[in-house]
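Protein Entry — a single chain follows
Next Lines — sequence and tokenised fold
***
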Amino acid sequence: MRAAVLHEIGQDKLEVLDDVEAVGFGPGKVRLRIRATGLCHSDVSAMSGVLPQPAPFIPGHEGAGEVIDVGDGVSGLSAGDRVLVCWLPACGECPSCKRGQTQLCLAGFMNAGTPNFKRPGGDVFGFAGTGTFTEEVVVGAGCAVPIPDDVPFEIAALIGCGVTTGLGAAINTAKVEAGSSVAVIGCGGVGISTIQGARVQGAAQIVAVDPVASRREAALRFGATEAVSPDEFADAKQRITAGEGFDYVFEVVGKSVTARTAYENTRRGGTLCIVGAGAMDDNFQVNMFELFFDEKRILPSMYGGGDVLRSYERAIALWRAGRIDLESMITHRVRLDGINDALDQMRTGESLRTCIEL
């Protein structure tokens, strides 16, 4: 079958090959035919080494498709079912799951160390234990979440990561209050979803901050009340909050320098929400006096900060009701052969989300 493979960490191009085989099918597993997958910035971060991932590997974790076959012991799924790929499935048994913090379950991360593809030259890993830049993939049954018939594959794919992450940051983690002021730093697919989440929650002012003009323009269409470049952020803070700072600031880049900017633009007693996934050696620093004196809440948000199955259902309900716009987030569509063009478009900020159709 065909798949896009990164041979070594640090390479910026993928090679589309036709000699890849999905392996590992057996009890508790399902085989999926991927129909659509989104290109998420985390895929690029894994390729560059910012996020840890063994290589060679197949990127992609934001996918949707159909069940081809189910292994022994799998219930609730059968061949032909339409599903989205959950890259962080809950095991239901670990302490995090039992506390209701299923987004912190480590079972999915453990899968990332087991190859689920092979080529004539050896084993190939799937990113985050999945790997959706391929025609077929074998995953644990918990990674295959049934979707209603009225949800297109490309919409389900977005819900599988970026939309759930952004909406959840605003709704689950920060719990944005109606009438509040919000700033979102970084307006790619996850940032746009965060803006939509803040709008759903009733924020009065939503300022989008991004260096790319086209993304600032897009942010306004998705609910931002103002969109500024990073150089204009300080002026926006002064005009909108009289210099006090925003009630909520979301960092959706994954870098310490933007996290520090977010902290400085959060009001005393306000909330800084870290949504971007960054590198292990990139340290965010605050001094002990400001940490105590400013009483700013610093809240990381992992995969939307809540139960992902409930978050999927909420995203579908909001989309059906017209409260969030998911179709317009897909700015580019390519076939698998166009994956490297899609990567370039993401790196330059030209795209919000690219849908790869298989």
